[in-house]
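Friendly challenge for the regulars: who can give me the structure tokens for this chain first? No prize, just bragging rights.
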Amino acid sequence: MASLTAEAAASSSSSSLPHYSTDQNHYTYEVFLSFRGEDTRFNFTDHLHTALCQRGIETFRDDGLRRGEEISSALIKAIRESRVSIIVFSHNYASSRWCLDELVEILECRKSKGQEVRAVFYKVDPSDVRHQRGAFGDAFATLDQCKYKDSMDKWKAALKEAADLSGWPFKDGKYESKFINDIVGELSAQVVNPSCDLQVATHPIGIESCRQDVIRLLHAEENIVCTVGIWGPGGIGKTTIAKDVFNSIRCKFAYSCFLADVRSNALVQMQETLLFDILRDSTLKVNNVDKGVGLIKTRMQNKKVLLILDDVSHSSQLQNLVPSPDCFGPSSRILITTRDKRWLIAYQVDEVYEVKLLDYDQALELFSLNAFKRNGPPDNYLELAQRAVLYAQGLPLGLIVLGSHLFRRSREEWEATLDSCRGEDPHREIRDVLKISYDALGVDLKGYFLDIACFFKGEYVDRVKPILEACYDLKSVTGIAQLQEKALIRIDDGDKIWMHDLIEEMGKDIVY
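First reply, four minutes later:
Bragging rights claimed.
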């Protein structure tokens, strides 16, 4: 059954680039540029370097390291401390022994450190690089073969190996700016961004099936803008799902942005974050919400974007961050998490994914991982663990908070907590999260909710409606529907009102 750890616990190229297990902090640079200065320093390589830096990709370019008979230790250090090396093959690249030694070092790092290496064939044919022929071969022939006879074979082997790598060929007649944008977009989406994945969950129980369900709803194969809502009560794992989906598919998008905690942040701040994450223009400032809307409408239209709006609590947030799906380019995907289904319906999302509670086995495993740091409870705690799991009823946040509270406590403390929650309150965090939904209700709707929590849980809807209508100005049909939309209650198959025990306790706590 779908679900996961709690939210409070928190293709432009035909080639596929790998993800890296190496710690991202190991690298000083994201990209190392290897090029023949006389050919491309003041044109193509300069434009590529500028575009990479504007996207926020830390890039090393040799702008003055002293040349000797061998490449310097500083240059070797820069190569070894770069995540990706890009070799710009130009007509005279092979005439430079320094370029060739750089190439050998780069390919050695590819073998020994798993670094990514890509080639740009700038107005040269890859086959000429491979076989050292044509104008490229003529440049290679200018090297003193007697002086460098000990290096010739390794240079030839390196040129052949590099020419066989996946790369970007550029010929006269192409638009250089578009060519560079394609390179930067691919590097950003498939190499650099995956190194900065969002932290999903310490124990991602059940998350895989949820991720697959949401990705199916996103219809990735269709060349349209698709919007999907993830809906459920606080603590059930909406944010966790969204983060995992984001990490899993962001490599397919040239641009991506995860706007966390939309409920609590100022609109202008979020608009500015969105614009910066997509455009990477640090000079762009948003002075007011209307200006932000205008910039989003005009600057995003040709961008294939993956955008996550996490914890939306009002329609104005959607209207000002995504004025319309058409603001983004074809094949863009927008994912919205919320506790209130009404905003998803009003925004006319294409699909709604309702997050389910953990089933018993998943709940016991998640609880045990927090209470015992193992997949299941020890035999002498099995009965107590089962009581705790039944109490939390599959709500991940409840399982995590309760399990963490009981970790390394005695049986007596377990029994006291489960019997009456004496002393320290392990459930306060849960109720604080759930109470946000309550605080957003109108006066009459708060009354509906509190009456149901205190008196009508498990009662037939038709019996409860006339009682509520007699007490409040709000029609019971409307009130019950709104509470359902906020995932505070549910009508089960027998037309009875269902409310999660933790939500019920939160309501009673407010009354007390």
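Residues 1-25 have pLDDT under 50 and may be disordered. The first strand starts at residue 29 and ends at 35. Your move, everyone else.
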